[in-house]
């Protein structure tokens, strides 16, 4: 075993998975993979689905620490983090504030803007648009946009729009998920992601998909999505992106581990997209890929994350 962690010190570990969010199916896959890796490393780990078992059972059943593998609302947004702090049980990843901020794409962008970190122009929409309003938004954002619910993950509720009719429909759909919608200028270019582990930015991964953007299907179902690590950037460009990613991660008070997504446009400019504080940990996931490029196996990565758990 390459890591220098005594797994017996972890005690009884709950892997939180499933939950009630729109990302439940992905969380079940992530949590199952994490649980299996921990068991393989000799950890006394158990799956725990808060949608099926009251959270107070964590105390009743004597769990010593928690690995959060919940994606989306209720698991990644500060709610679960606050509950675990109230219970006094150490947990992985970002604290309440970092989780809540990173989950909110609008607040994240506002913080980045205030710190002069590069991110695409946007508008915040809180009610349905008529076509005249939609045309004005499109004109202000260079004619092509991507619409995102403010607090959903896994690209749920996202759509591209290049006409007023498309934009009104996309906003109406996104408002089903969230009371606020982010309408962001469409970036034409390559998409990258930077995994953060502790205080370190891991090797950059590039994603390529024949889809219009890296959507839910491209992430979890498509066989045509390609991943590159090494990412194809020059050493200087990769380093620059890693620095931006770590600054972006720290800016929203994220900690422990996570992932920062970014794009580079056709003019070579970087645009930060979002922070994921509980990224996917499935067989197709990006953080394990980056860790592997750094020489860490999936099991070593999982143990390293669990070792950072605190209350």
From TrEMBL:
It is found in: Cytoplasm. It comes from the Bacteria. Residues 109-307 form the ATP-grasp domain. Keywords: ATP-binding, Cell shape, Cell wall biogenesis/degradation, Cytoplasm, Ligase, Magnesium, Manganese, Metal-binding, Nucleotide-binding, Peptidoglycan synthesis. Its EC number is 6.3.2.4. Mg(2+) 1 binds at residues 261, 274. The active site is at 23, 154, 285. Its cofactor is Mn(2+); Mg(2+). InterPro entries: ATP-grasp, ATP_grasp_subdomain_1, D-Ala_lig_Van_CS, D_ala_D_ala, Dala_Dala_lig_C, Dala_Dala_lig_N, PreATP-grasp_dom_sf. Belongs to the D-alanine--D-alanine ligase family. Cell wall formation. This is D-alanine--D-alanine ligase. It comes from Neiella marina. The lineage of its organism: Bacteria, Pseudomonadati, Pseudomonadota, Gammaproteobacteria, Alteromonadales.
């Amino acid at each position: 075993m390459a890591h220098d962690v005594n797994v017996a010190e972890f005690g009884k570990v709950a892997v939180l998975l499933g939950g009630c969010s729109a990302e439940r199916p992905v969380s079940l896959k992530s949590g199952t993979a994490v649980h299996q890796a921990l068991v393989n490393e000799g950890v006394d780990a158990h799956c725990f689905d808060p949608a099926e078992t009251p959270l107070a059972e964590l105390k009743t059943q004597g769990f010593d620490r928690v690995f959060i593998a919940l994606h989306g609302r209720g698991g990644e947004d500060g709610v679960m983090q606050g509950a675990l702090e109230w219970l006094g049980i150490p947990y992985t990843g970002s604290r309440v504030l970092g989780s809540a901020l990173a989950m909110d794409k609008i607040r994240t962008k506002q913080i980045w803007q205030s710190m002069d970190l590069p991110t695409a122009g946007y508008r915040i929409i809180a009610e349905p648009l008529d076509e005249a309003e939609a045309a004005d938004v499109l004109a202000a954002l260079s004619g092509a946009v991507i619409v995102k619910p403010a607090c959903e993950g896994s690209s749920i509720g996202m759509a591209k729009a290049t006409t007023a009719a498309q934009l009104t429909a996309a906003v109406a759909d996104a408002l089903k998920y969230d009371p606020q919608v982010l309408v962001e200028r469409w970036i034409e270019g390559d998409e990258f992601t930077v995994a953060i582990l502790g205080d370190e930015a891991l090797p950059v991964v590039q994603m390529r998909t024949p889809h219009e953007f890296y959507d839910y299907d491209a992430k979890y179902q498509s066989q045509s999505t390609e991943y590159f690590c090494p990412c194809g950037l020059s050493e200087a460009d990769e380093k620059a992106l890693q620095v931006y990613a770590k600054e972006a991660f720290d800016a929203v008070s994220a900690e422990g581990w996570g992932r920062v997504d970014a794009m580079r446009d056709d003019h070579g400019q970087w645009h930060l997209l979002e922070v994921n504080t509980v990224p996917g940990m499935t067989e197709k996931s990006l953080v394990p890929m980056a860790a592997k490029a750094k020489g860490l196996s999936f099991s070593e990565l999982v143990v390293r994350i669990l070792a950072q758990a605190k209350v």
